[in-house]
Write a structure and sequence with these properties.
By secondary structure, the chain is mainly beta. The protein folds into four domains: 97 residues, no CATH class; 115 residues, Umud Fragment, subunit A; 206 residues, Sandwich (Jelly Rolls), CATH 2.60.120.560; 66 residues, no CATH class. Helix content is 11%, strand content 36%. The protein contains six helices and 35 strands. The strands form seven sheets. Strands 13, 14, 15, 16, 17, 21, 22, 23, 24, 25, 26, 27 and 28 form a 13-stranded antiparallel beta sheet that branches. Strands 1, 7, 8, 9, 30, 31, 32 and 35 form an eight-stranded antiparallel beta sheet that branches. It has a four-stranded antiparallel beta sheet with strand order 12-11-10-29, with no helix packed on it.
Length: 584
């Protein structure tokens, strides 16, 4: 063998017809061919045994994963959101045709309706790189995004989220997943993977008089009327600031709050009621607009279904000079435009049938910069049955979680829950040492009947579990933050919601649990209102033998672009770098 590794004699290295200073061109060509063949074989083996690429065409996993869609820029708030042009077509072969002609969208951030998208070019769906070895020797985990073969059409691959494991009894109850009679809860990382943006305070419409801010400061009065040092919040661009470090006794100051109001422009099926003792005689039935208005003199209540239109409110105000009635109209107009957070999807057409479901599973996120003082910063959330206060105590350098039942008829308490003498925290943690150095991202989630607190991506207060009594209504003011005795700035305000799994048009795991056999899985799409999945398939299960693997990377996404050469305009596919990401 050693003989073969020896260098060739000099006379055998040089072709008599080629100069010693020229490369062997035949050898270079052969090397290129061999390299190409080797690369082809390597890619083939890689795709066969390790990873393979797939492109998504439907919108069942939106907004986590996108099918064919249009990237829409809202003309009022400027946020970019995807609008689907195709949905799951495994049961409806005409679905793609039906949605292709829809040319109007609603902004999921500011509620602007009637956005013309007829000239917006269509984007390809996300391209996934799938690890085909992921489930060879272990079972997938709940909440994993998985790729699998359609049992009835083996040439088709689907992507869904795994919610039910072999041997489990699974049921959808109130938008949640119940396994063997117990609520399936997501940890912090799983919540981040499934959360859906509700509102981004940085994206607010400018020059739109019809829009109302979702985050608004609440005026407070000092406990001592002679004091003039009461702290309050100042709205600055996209942030809120407080200057209160010079307050000598922060504990004597009330908490100054900034509340979140989920404001809508129009529509809705909710009922809003305000007190009204009498109806003015000059306002007769012919003047009352057909806007779902009702007056019940026995109860002294003035009500409306949905958001009271501005023209209807204006007509009522112009019909009388009765101050009490005019005040009631104004109050009803303001209150009727604040609703509970629902499971709306900006990805879906605005005329999609079905009434949105109220969602109480929310996550609050903000950057908080504490610059000094001896007071407290508080985040308060409610699910409609309980109220939770997370108190950041600067002096004691601790974070305390308080939890108490919400009084009947109230959305949030007017005073700090944890300040009562008989109230004890249900959980606590040390304030991080570098909390005062710079802005920190604080996230509080109220998802799957548990509350947790995270700072800069690290869980500080572990999930604290609770129950919700039946009949509790989702709140219209679900979250607020407050402070006293601090110099503090709060920015990057965002509110997210959890996926709400709908049970309409479903045949499995709705009215009763569905029991999975060995090697059987139950899968659902994140875009629950339109997804065809285990709830609706005739055979609801995915067998282990049909698993392809776990997607781990959205790669090579593209977006349409134009290139003008003279009088000609060419359509191009350009890289969309913002969509490249690893999947959790």
């Amino acid at each position: 063998m050693s003989e073969l590794l020896q260098p060739l004699p000099e006379k055998e290295k040089i072709d008599p017809g080629i100069s010693a200073h020229d490369p062997d061109k035949r050898g270079t060509f052969r090397a290129l061919v061999e390299a190409f063949v080797s690369l082809f074989v390597a890619v083939l083996l890689f795709r066969t045994f390790a990873a393979e690429g797939y492109m998504i065409s439907t919108g069942s996993m939106a907004p986590c994963l996108l099918g064919y869609h249009k990237r829409v820029v809202c003309p009022t708030c400027g946020i970019t959101f995807p609008f689907g042009t195709a949905y799951d077509t495994d049961e409806d072969p005409d679905a793609d045709v039906n949605v292709a002609g829809r040319s109007r969208a609603i902004c999921p951030n500011c509620g602007q309706s009637g956005i013309d998208i007829s000239d917006v070019p269509r984007n390809h769906g996300d391209q996934l790189l799938v690890n085909k070895q992921a489930y060879l020797y272990q079972l997938p985990k709940r909440w994993d995004v998985i790729v699998f073969r359609n049992p009835s059409r083996p040439t088709e691959a689907y992507v869904k989220r795994l919610v039910g494991l072999p041997g489990e009894r699974i049921q959808i109850v109130g938008g949640d997943i119940v396994i063997n009679g117990q609520l399936a809860r997501k940890n912090y990382a799983e919540q981040l993977a499934t959360r859906i943006l509700v509102h981004d305070h940085d994206r607010r419409p400018s020059g739109d008089d019809a829009f109302r801010l979702h985050w608004e400061a609440v005026n407070v009065d000092s406990i001592d009327s002679d004091r003039s040092t009461t702290t309050s919040w100042t709205a600055k661009s996209s942030s809120f600031s407080m200057h209160g470090r010079n307050v000598r006794r922060p504990d004597k100051e009330p908490i100054a709050w900034v509340e979140y109001h989920h404001w809508i422009r129009s529509g809705g099926m909710h009922d809003t009621t305000v007190p009204l003792s009498h109806w003015p005689e000059e306002v007769n039935s012919t003047v009352i607009p057909t806007a779902g208005l009702r007056f019940e003199p026995q109860k002294g209540e003035f009500s409306v279904t949905g958001a009271l239109p501005a023209n209807a409110a204006r007509k009522l105000l112009d019909s009388t000079n009765d101050d009490a009635f005019r005040s009631a109209v104004l109050e009803l107009y303001e209150a009727s435009h604040i609703v509970t957070v629902s499971d709306d999807y900006g990805y879906n057409p605005s005329d999609e049938s079905g009434v949105p479901n109220p969602v109480r599973d929310l996550m609050f996120s903000a950057n908080v910069e504490m610059k000094g003082g001896a007071g407290e910063f508080v985040i308060e959330m409610t699910n409609g049955a309980m109220v939770f206060d997370i108190v950041f105590d600067i002096v004691r350098r601790e974070i305390c979680l308080y939890a108490e039942p919400l009084p009947d008829g109230m959305s949030l308490n007017s005073d700090l829950m944890g300040a009562g003498p008989n109230s004890e925290p249900v959980a606590s943690a040390l304030l991080p040492d570098k909390m005062m150095d710079k802005a920190r991202q604080i996230e509080v989630s109220l998802i799957d009947k548990q509350i947790l607190v995270a700072i800069d991506g690290n869980v500080i207060i572990a999930p604290w579990k609770f129950e919700i009594p039946s009949g509790a209504q989702a709140p219209r003011i679900p979250v607020r933050f407050g402070g006293r005795g601090l110099d503090i700035k709060v920015s990057k305000l965002k509110l997210f919601r959890d996926v709400y799994y709908t049970d309409t048009r479903s045949r499995h795991a709705v009215n009763r649990p569905y029991e999975l056999s060995a090697d059987e899985f139950f899968v659902l799409g994140d875009n629950s209102p339109v997804s065809h999945d285990s709830r609706r398939w005739e055979n609801p299960v995915v067998h282990r033998s049909h698993l392809v693997g776990k997607p781990f990377l959205v790669h090579l996404p593209s977006k349409p672009g134009n290139l003008r050469i003279g009088n000609r305009e060419l359509q191009l596919r350009l890289p969309d770098w913002e969509r490249i990401r690893f999947l959790r």
